[in-house]
Amino acid sequence: MSGPLLDVRNLSRRFDVSKPWLNRKIEGLERLYVKAVDDVSFTVNRGETFALVGESGSGKSTIARLIVGLLKPTAGEIFFDGQSLAKGLNGAEARRLRRRFQMIFQDPLASLNPRWRVTDIIAEPLRVFEGGMADRERRLRVGELLTLVGLSPEDGVKFPHQFSGGQRQRIAIARALAARPEFIVCDEPTSALDVSVQAQILNLMKDLQREFGLTYVFISHNLQVVRHMSDQIGVLYLGRLAEVNSAAGLFAAPRHPYTRMLLDAVPDIEMTGRGRRKVEGEIPSPLSPPPGCTFHPRCPLANDRCRREVPHLRAGVACHAVEEGRVPA
Amino acid sequence: MSSQDMTPAPAPGTPAPVAPPRPTGRLRRMLDSDIFYSWKRSPVTVIATFTALFLILMALMAPLIAPHDPFNPASLNLMDGFTPPASASAFSDNWFLMGADNQGRDVLSTIMYGSRVSLFVGFMATLFAVVMGMGLGLAAGYNGGMIDAVIMRVADIQLSFPAILIALLIFGVARGVIPANQQESMAIWVLILAIGLSNWAQFARTVRGATMVEREKDYVAAARIMGVHPVLILLRHILPNVLGPVLVIGTIGLALAIIEEATLSFLGVGVPPTQPSLGTLIRIGQQYLFSGEWWILFFPAMTLILLALSVNLLGDWLRDALNPKLR
């Protein structure tokens, strides 16, 4: 049961943010695109968690939406268990594929239909994928799922607004699990929750992963959460992968200057007295990204080559300084 | 609805804190709701509700409770014509609470039967406008792009004309299309179509706006990931969430449709004379206003005003009651 379940190859997505046609003609403007995701490749192994981290605007959520088919890629391909997803999800084949993946969203209140009872929300995947299921059987399954995520089967008659944030996310998890998927894309599943509840939800997700052998793509901006959850980590910067490494490797020996900057900024609970450096500068506008390596305006090691040439991911890191051995240990 | 019954997340394993007991039973729960409370607190709304209910019931039960049958020529006596209110006819033993009109028909009874026609046309036309506006609004809001542009430009153009003008136009076209021998029987349906078509645009606009908000929400994304058909997403997910504003403008739209019908009938292009609506009665009455027979105009006009006003006030209240920002 090893080998990649998800294989993302040279994935790109740009968004058209041009002004309307008439304005363009009169003001003599060109069409304008934002490169939200640019040439991103990674693989996710079965039963593992691949985390994508990055600042806001780095393209994390766009990648999530591309994987589950909510957006179509501009270029590149996504293979799920050897089958291409980018070709469009249609027909009976797609039905079988769709059943195997699910998504958990950031804001559990928005991801649950406010007019539906919890039972109906959780039963929706069952209605879609197991139309032949008897009503009674379906209700039993919903009860099971509610118990599984730490709620009570009686909660099924309530509406989402009658729950707390953490409980709502449990409901969203129950819905995601209903049709027994193998793969779940989690788009910042805990960032809308209180810190005290975050740990509960994360532990629940880990338990479920162990129990059902789930594969996660886990998106977060919180490095501590990512360290706790993931096997592999990809660091995104302005739509490009800066560094990909195992969780242990990345935290022990970050190589890309951006990763180092992020890790240096993480407060640590023991307060070892380590000098914490704050993250310098801001992520540039994706509308007019800097030429060459997009990180060069903030990079302490940038030289002329960095300002001209886009670095490509080699051996898990996309940085000229690392290639040339200019990075101090 | 109520944010008070949100309980904090219990630690796994511990029983959830017990919520305060909520009344059980459908009626009890309804009487306990925020909506009912806001209704109770507004005397104007309470009066408007009872007025509207009274008028609607009166119209529905007209054949049972009307003192006379104004459409049965056998029971009419032309000599009763112009009998003043609350008096007996000088020629027969008929007594008229609201007087009799030029043909000796009891004004109260014609009002009862007339409200039936007015309400029927109003309801059906509003229903037609809601269904059409909602369908087009959902399609425009969910798909966006070309479909949205076409539907909304048509709506914009239509909204730039007064509704009554549109209705007159549609009515005129229908007159030309329908053969003469069917015009009488088709008149009411043509009227419903004309009023409905002249009012769909505001429903389409409202629904489109609400749909555009809802379609970006993650619960729609979740359904799309599962591969739920767009039509099912629209009907089962989005529609229930855009119904609130539709209910509000639908109520106000009902009052407008009733007035529009009365206007058309007043102008003489509405319902056939054999089925007079409130508007027709007002048209007949205004011919005798200056000769002193004021009751033929006054009572139907008051009924129309009461009906439109009470429905309108109900709509106003509903808009405020369903608006979380005004609570």
UniProtKB/TrEMBL annotation, chain A:
What are its GO biological-process terms?
peptide transport; transmembrane transport
Checking Gene3D superfamilies in the record gives:
P-loop containing nucleotide triphosphate hydrolases
- Start and end residues of each ABC transporter domain: 6-263
Q: What InterPro entries does the database record attribute to this sequence?
A: AAA+_ATPase (IPR003593), ABC_transp_ATP-bind (IPR050319), ABC_transporter-like_ATP-bd (IPR003439), ABC_transporter-like_CS (IPR017871), Oligopep_ABC_C (IPR013563), P-loop_NTPase (IPR027417)
Query: Which subcellular locations apply to this protein?
Result: Cell inner membrane
Q: How does it sit in the membrane?
A: Peripheral membrane protein
A single GO cellular-component term from the record reads:
plasma membrane
Q: Which SUPFAM superfamilies match?
A: P-loop containing nucleoside triphosphate hydrolases
| One Pfam family this sequence matches | ABC_tran
Per UniProt, which keywords does this protein have? ATP-binding, Nucleotide-binding, Transport
**PROSITE patterns xrefs:** ABC_TRANSPORTER_1, ABC_TRANSPORTER_2
**Any GO molecular function:** ATP hydrolysis activity
SMART domains in the record: AAA
Family affiliation: Belongs to the ABC transporter superfamily.
Task: Name the PANTHER family for this protein.
Answer: D,D-DIPEPTIDE TRANSPORT ATP-BINDING PROTEIN DDPF-RELATED, TRANSPORT ATP-BINDING PROTEIN
Protein name, entry field: ATP-binding cassette domain-containing protein
Phylogenetic classification of the source organism: Bacteria, Pseudomonadati, Pseudomonadota, Alphaproteobacteria, Rhodobacterales
